């Protein structure tokens, strides 16, 4: 186990060094000598160039990040189409830096308090990873949460990716017709069967592009990308500047009283739920159909949470002081 942990640590060191180094042409690259020196300065047992190359091969297999060697400059670089995964990579590297700090100084545990996420476990995860990696078809029963727990059977599914969204895991897969990549919540899968039948993986899928205009896991191809204009007060504005609603967020007004932004997204249920989670001062300026959708949600909530008219009369208010 210790050897495996050391290997993972070296792999993250490699990614961290290459990703953080700007080469002569502005891309992420680093010489072999510099990379080896960096790694050996951060590990207990020095490694050879052969071990370095083996770690780089493992990085592509485990993290799906392709690192190529440039013989002309004797350097390694992260290929352009993989370096575009900046958000996810940055998150992973930040977690690595924090873990390193805690590991190197036990006292850091007194200062760094990570968020305690709800454990999301699925006994099917190892089987799904195996099926994705080795291109095996799968079948399972699937629980439809939005339809009262109805259970349907899915046969001859072609799993391509495992994706996380909002602390839940999904398998992205094609049905047997291979027409559209769909997301299946792993927490809703029952009676999974991994078949011996193999399929040919579609390597031309731009998964990042699929979700670029979405919020969360929903990606309805029939929905257009729309400009959404939202207005908040100054207090909510601080939070939205610290944690933008979407990567397309653009500030239109920030005058100390009003904070107005625009985002370009598909208006899915996930996006509406995100708006509701910070809606204390929210006003939907555009589009109008989203404004009406939010109004309908508020109206229904008002009915559900209504109280008797006399609950807050003067006598009750006085008695509760």
UniProtKB/TrEMBL annotation:
It holds the Pfam family WYL. InterPro entries: CBASS_pafABC_assoc_protein (IPR051534), WYL_dom (IPR026881). It comes from the Bacteria. Residues 126-193 form the WYL domain. This is WYL domain-containing protein. It comes from Segatella copri.
């Amino acid at each position: 186990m210790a050897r495996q942990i050391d290997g993972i640590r070296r792999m993250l060191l490699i990614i961290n060094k290459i990703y953080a180094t700007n080469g002569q042409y502005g891309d992420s690259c680093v010489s072999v000598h510099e990379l080896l020196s960096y790694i050996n300065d951060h590990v207990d047992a020095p490694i050879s160039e052969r071990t370095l190359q083996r770690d780089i091969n493992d990085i592509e297999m485990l993290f799906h990040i392709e690192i190529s060697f440039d013989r002309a400059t004797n350097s390694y670089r992260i290929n352009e189409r993989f370096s575009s995964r900046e958000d996810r990579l940055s998150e992973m590297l930040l977690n690595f830096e924090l873990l390193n700090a805690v590991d190197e100084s036990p006292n850091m545990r007194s200062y760094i308090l990570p968020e305690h996420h709800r454990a999301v476990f699925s006994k099917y995860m190892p089987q799904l990873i195996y099926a994705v990696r080795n291109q095996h078809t799968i079948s399972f029963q699937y629980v439809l949460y939005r339809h009262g727990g109805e259970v349907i059977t899915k046969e001859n599914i072609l799993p391509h990716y495992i994706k996380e969204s909002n602390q839940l895991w999904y398998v992205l897969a094609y049905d047997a017709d291979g027409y559209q990549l769909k997301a299946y919540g792993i927490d809703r899968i029952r009676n999974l069967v991994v078949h011996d039948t193999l399929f040919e993986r579609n390597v031309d899928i731009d998964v990042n592009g699929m979700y670029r205009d979405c919020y969360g896991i929903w990606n309805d191809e029939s929905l257009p990308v729309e400009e959404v204009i939202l207005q908040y007060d100054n207090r909510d504005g601080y939070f939205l500047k610290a944690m933008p609603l979407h990567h397309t967020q653009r500030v239109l007004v920030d005058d100390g009283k009003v904070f107005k932004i625009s985002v370009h997204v598909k208006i899915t249920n996930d996006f509406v739920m995100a708006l509701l989670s910070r809606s204390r001062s929210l006003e939907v300026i555009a589009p109008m159909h989203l404004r009406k959708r939010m109004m309908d949600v508020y109206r229904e909530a008002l009915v559900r949470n209504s109280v008797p008219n006399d609950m807050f009369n003067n006598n009750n208010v006085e008695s509760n002081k």
